[in-house]
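Weekly sync notes, structure subgroup
Attendees: PM, AL, DS (notes)

Item 1: joint prediction request from the bench team. They want all two components modeled as one assembly rather than separately. Inputs as received:
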Amino acid sequence: MTRVSAHPQLRGLNQRLERGRTRLQLVRFGRGLSWGILLSAAVWLVFSSLRWAGGMQPGAWAGLVPLYVLAVWALGVALYILRTPPSLMHIAQRAEKHYGLEERLSTALEVVHRPPRDTAHAYIYEALVRDAAAKSERVKPGQLFEFRPPRNLLYALGIGALALGLQFAPKLAPPQAPVQTAGLSPQERASTVTQLERVTQLVRRDAERTNDPYLQATVRSLEQLKAQIRSGQLAGPQAQQEIARLSEQIERGYSLPGPSPSSQPATSNSPAVIADNPSRNAPQTGSNRPQGDQPGQQNPNAQQQTGTSPSQQLNNLAQKLEAKPQQAQDKSPAPPQQTQSQQQGECDGAACSDIYAKARSQQTKDAESATRNINRPPGGAAGGFGDQAGKEGGGKSGARGGTPPPRTRAEQVKLPFQAPPSGRRIQILGPASASTAANVTGTVEAQNWVRQEEVPIGLGYLAAPNRSIVSSYFTPAKETQ
Amino acid sequence: MTEGPQVNLETELAKLQQAREGIARVVVGQREAIDQVLMSLISGGHVLLEAAPGMGKTLLVRTLAQVFGMRFSRVQFTPDLMPADITGTVVLIHDDQGKTHLEFQPGPIFAQLVLADEINRATPKTQSSLLEAMQEHTVTVAGSQHQLPEPFFVLATQNPIEQEGTYLLPEAQIDRFFFKVQIPYPPEKVLEEILELTTGAEEVKAEQVLTPEDIVHLQRLTRAVPVASHVRQAVAKFVLATQPSDPKNLKEVQRYVRFGVSPRGGQALVLAAKAHALLAGRYNVAFDDLRAVLFPALRHRFNLNFEGQAEGVSVDGLLAKLFSETVGKQAV
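Output from the run, pasted for the record:
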């Protein structure tokens, strides 16, 4: 009797089963891969559908996602198959089912490693192994595990064709203009936020020092702008425009010199010019434009400054602000800019200062009731400052309640301060005639003054001389509210 | 390795096939019953044969004895049959010298092939004496144990029609029968052949092909047939699936089954499958072997409750369903 385990015919059986196992692994991988292809096609279809429906902007990454999915899936399948190889017993059972071998192979594989207990067992085992080896001649791994294209591939092909068709199909909705995509890059955004922080600190320092509500409002505006840029709510042209607007207003409020083109036409924004040509008043000049009047119109200055980066623009502003304190310590705040008439000699700076001084003293002397009744705008004082400036349509609160009287000619107005450029307006009273204004000395009868101009207030108005003029001269009541 | 007697496997199996054919020539049209009886014989089990009168039960047993050269005895069970009438008794013997002594007189059970005809007509006491001999292959009389000859094969019959004056075998005793073979009524062609063969002048007789020793060898070979582990697992799963106490089993089982297949039933199933494989010329147990011996091995071990019987639930049908849902899933 020969030992069963040494039966030479079992080697052939083992070789066939090994080949079958290798083939089964390949078949399993192919089958698993087909699921991955199906999944990738589904992902591609989803992206194509979103793009076709207009819910997603096309990008290179969208085309690569299905490939990534397929690669990851294939890797996972390969690892899984390598880690879970089928046993020879499993292959034998598959062969038995396929060829109707009635459990001969699997039983023989078990018996091979089992020592027979007696001669009867030995005879039976021997006969079994011989029988199994003979029957295993029929086992062909190629027939047992055929490489057939899985049905998933057909589905994947169909889905892929659909996705490809969507690529060339006309879009369901027109592509939306990129809202934020052309915005600031993360680096630029961070830099802008840093510079905004820097400017905010400088303005805050002045606001705390002067306890100026307008500066405080400016600080709040800067903080709000910074938060919006940081969170991405404001980016791109809108951010640049807003930065340019704030920069311009800060520059003007501090009377900072600068290359900003907005500062040049500011000198022509004197009330005289404004009154001279009301149609091109503040809205046309950018610096004095009441921004609430035309909210949809873009600031041309901002448009011009889009050439430079917002961070660079803010950096320039911060440098100017940092340079400013030395100037402010050396001298008193800048006097209000002179009007065209003053430059022509009708009222030089000193004379105008006298006029203001006299008017201030007159204001003090006058009875509060008489002065306020006359000067206070019907319907309430011009309210709202700082962050409110430029955000309400028209800023008509100062002129609320009545139609302004026919405006006198600008040449007759001798108001030597620059009109505050902001959304809100304030009534400016002055002497009825230019000669009266020019000859004002000492006490002036303010009751006889008429409303000369209705000008907006804003950041430009924040300059201390102007504020004192307006607060003591024309609208003392509104600042107490 | 324990060395046993030298056997020639192919020769033994060839003789078994010859015996099978020889019996089939005599007992016409009952090939399935013949195979089941042969399987029981080479498995070392006993058979409960259920058939109507005149179906050839006695002929089958007698032919079997002729083919295998076994000593044959027949016991007709009646209500007044006593255990001693089967097992034998101790009698007082007077010898030639005038002395007396007690001597054991073996009963009809001391044969290699015993036909217990209409076993359900005897009292339970008598039945149990037979069943003890079936299980232990020994008989104890007057404190002395007597070994029964090998091979020892009991073929009991019971009449499924007449139930009056009978004592139904308890389930515990029925469980000791390896197979419950049912002999169906023969179809027309078979009946015609039976009439032709049995009413002629010449009586067909079977020749002896195997010896009782060959039967013992075949029994040893049968037990040596290996069973693959997944086949064995499937059988265990199937046996557990017949238990009504398991809430995971089929609702029909929980509702209609009184008690499921015992572990002895599982043993019988596997052993019978081994015999079936050997009879089919194979040396391993296949799922087909289990399917082939499912009903004779388990139908008397799978009891329905009153509700199942009242609703006419078929034991064979329920077994087939359970088998296909457990073993069959792996087989196909």
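Discussion: Chain B touches chain A at residues 1-7, 9, 217, 220-221, 223-231, 282-288, 332 (CB under 8 Å).
Action: AL to compare against the crosslinking data before next sync.
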